[in-house]
Amino acid sequence: MSTRASVLVIDDEPGIRDMLSFELSQEGFDVETAENGMAAVETLRRRKFDLAITDLKMPGMDGVATVEALRALDPDIEVIVATGYASVETAVACMKHGAYDYIQKPYDVAELKLLLERARQKSHLQSVVALYEASRALMTTLKHTDLVQLVVTLAQRVLRADDIGLILWRGEPGDFHIHRLVHDVLPSETLLLALAGRVTQKEGALKLAAHEIQPLASPSENRIYSSALAYPLVARDRALGALVALRRGNSLEFAASELQKGTVFASQLAISLDNARLYDELAQKVSELVRTREQLVHAEKMGLAGQLAGAVAHEVNNPLSFVQANLSAMNDYSLMVNGMWLASKEAAHYLYGQNRPESQAFADMLLTPAGTQGRTESLIREIDEVVTDTLDGVKRIAELVSGFARLAEPQTSASPEPVDVNDIVQECLETLPEESGPDAWEVHFHPTSCLALIAREDLKFALLHMMTFLRAPTGGQARQACTLVLQTGTSEGQPWLEILNRDLLLTEEERRRIFDPRVELDSGGRTMRLNIALALTYQMLRRNDAEVSTMLEQEQGVLFRVLFKPPTRWM
After folding, report:
1. Sorting pLDDT into bands at 50, 70 and 90, what band is 495?
2. What does the alpha-carbon distance between residue 119 and residue 15 come to, in Å, rounded to a whole number?
3. Which of 423, 513, 527, 532 lies closest to 474, judged by CA?
4. Residues 452-457: what's their mean pLDDT?
5. For the modification 4-aspartylphosphate, which residues carry it (predicted)?
6. ω into residue 106 within 30 of 0, thus cis?
């Protein structure tokens, strides 16, 4: 045997105890004796044993009760029951209560030695299996958040500890995070950091007794713990933290074999933590690559849209200007016609007052050019409404053409300056139509100025179009019941703005393509307007180095977030 196995011999006959102690010591075992079950329990409280041999018939606590008590105190101990009776039913009952095997008296030392070696091999195999299963669980858990939750549970199971503390360094001196078996104050931060500091300096595992723990513990936990194991967690020559396992006063002290077993577990844990770190970094890199790819695809779309927009704006602008001028003239003509109609009615009223047949005939001709007076007045009103509506439509087309032209502008055309985002938001709220004005918004301004480095007109243009879209995403009337939440603020020196629309429900695909300059469908199947407004919003903000993103808020609609460039680059 590579190391001496410790054996506790329990028998009420001194001669048998002495004989077994002598014979087993000669065979290389570390032997200690107890005269009955109660004495064996007390002896086991003082030190750990690998194996135990107990007589079945003893006064007071018999062999069955002794097996149960020993296994309850130390589940790792393997117990062999000795019986001097021909019937072994009671010995088998002991095995059902946790005994490894039984042997008949009188003892055959060679047979007993073989039985003890097999029992120790079983105990060692169980320990190896437990470590293997724990290592497999650690190695197959890649996410850091999942790993730290798993570690404390596995450590408690492998080391049979009452309390576990996992201390992880975050990179900066004094920056750490503590994970416990349960969310409790024990073990205290004071004790855990003290033990972590000691093993980090020693660069090796430590086993501490109660008198060594007490000076390190907080007053509230003094004399609670009887034993502790502490391990440094190091991977790739980088200190990751420490693992601490503790047993309370009513539990056995940790043995040297458990310190070695914990060293293997801590080594596997350090590798797993480092793998989780690398996995998280890889996932972040992949996420960044995906975002970069999406930005490149969007930039390509915007470039093509810009070329098309420039061509459309150029081709449409001249005829549109001619049509708009003619409609303005028609509007003037409509006003003149309306004036002439008023004059005709006044002349007819005068002629009716002459009381002459020919005068009344002329008056009737003046009031009924369209057949009847009512039909004539209706026709004049319709002409005025048609001209007004057509002029409004042309103005909207002109705005769209202006948007196309702006979309085709080069990325470098903006002239950034320090601008208070709060002021621009207030201007936009005052500019919006009455039905979508300030009362429709829940606004939370940053208490001080929210300064951003951006072209003022670009910011106003972008926010106005974004706010208009969010009030009526389908292009129709703004919904009176819809309240949008707008917030401004700064995080670590970087100004930001968020707008939350709780009623706008989109799929992930719709959210991802919301800034594309194209016609889209909302989640209800209704056709959304040509999304040039949001495309322009994105264009204006991106060329000012602002980061624009959208997020689907669970059961709360869509959140638009803009991160602005600060006036002085925050470091």
Report:
1. very high
2. 25
3. 527
4. 90
5. 55
6. yes
Three-state DSSP state, 114: helix
Look up tokens 């030392």; give the residue.
109
At 18, which amino acid appears?
D
More confident residue, 439 or 168: 168
Q: What is the CA radius of gyration of the chain?
A: 43
- Can you tell me the distance from the alpha carbon of 408 to that of 80, in angstroms, rounded to the nearest whole number? 89
| Pairing mode of beta strands 527-530, 547-553 | unpaired
Taking residue 530's Cβ as centre, other Cβ atoms within 10 Å add up to 14
pLDDT at 50 over 60: yes
In this structure, the number of other CB atoms found within 10 A of the CB of residue 37 comes to 25
Q: Are 305 and 409 in contact (CB under 8 A)?
A: no
Show Cβ contacts of residue 492 under 8 Å, excluding neighbours closer than 6 positions: 570
For 371, counting Cβ atoms within 10 Å of its Cβ (0-12 exposed, 13-18 middle, 19+ buried), the class is: exposed
- CB < 8 Å & 24+ apart, contacts of 137-141: 138/268, 138/269, 138/271, 138/272, 139/268, 139/271, 139/272, 139/275, 141/272, 141/276
Q: Are 422 and 488 in contact (CB under 8 A)?
A: yes
Map tokens 């009512």 to a residue: 374
| Among the listed residues 93, 91, 90, 72, the one whose alpha carbon sits nearest the alpha carbon of residue 81 | 91
403-440 pLDDT per residue, tens: 666 666 655 556 789 999 999 999 988 887 665 445 56
218-272 pLDDT per residue, tens: 887 878 898 999 999 998 888 889 999 998 887 788 888 788 888 888 888 888 8
Q: What is the pLDDT of residues 333-375, one digit of tens each?
A: 888 888 888 888 888 888 888 888 888 888 788 788 777 878 8
The string of DSSP codes covering 423-434 is HHHHHHHHHS-G
Distances (CA, A) of 66 to 60, 62, 91, 430, 534: 10, 6, 12, 86, 79
Strand partners, 163: 246
Q: Spell out the alpha helix ranges (H) of 454-516.
A: 456-471, 508-512
Which residues, in sequence order, are CB contacts of 219 under 8 Å at separation 6+? none
For helices 256-352 and 373-407, angle between their N-to-C axes, nearest 10 degrees: 150
Contact 224, 210 (CB under 8 A): no
Backbone angles phi, psi at 418, to 5 degrees: -65, 120
Q: Which candidate, 114, 130, 79, 131, places its Cα nearest to that of 1? A: 114
Q: Read off the amino acid at residue 253.
A: E
Distance CA 471, CA 478 (A): 5
Backbone φ and ψ of 225, nearest 5°: -100, 140
**Tokens 């991106």, residue?**
542
Q: Please give the angle made by the CA atoms of 374, 376 and 379, to the nearest 5 degrees.
A: 110
CA distance between the termini of the chain: 63
Collapsing DSSP states into helix, strand and coil, what is residue 308?
helix
Q: Is the pTM of this model over 0.90?
A: no
> How far apart are alpha carbons 350 and 464 in whole angstroms?
54
Edge-first strand listing for the sheet containing 6-10:
30-34, 6-10, 51-55, 78-83, 101-104
What does the alpha-carbon distance between residue 100 and residue 123 come to, in Å, rounded to a whole number? Answer: 10
Q: What does the block give as tokens for 192?
A: 């855990």
- List the beta bridge partners of residue 33: 9
Any idea which of 167-171, 249-253, 467-471, 566-570 has the lowest mean pLDDT?
566-570
Contact 517, 538 (CB under 8 A): no
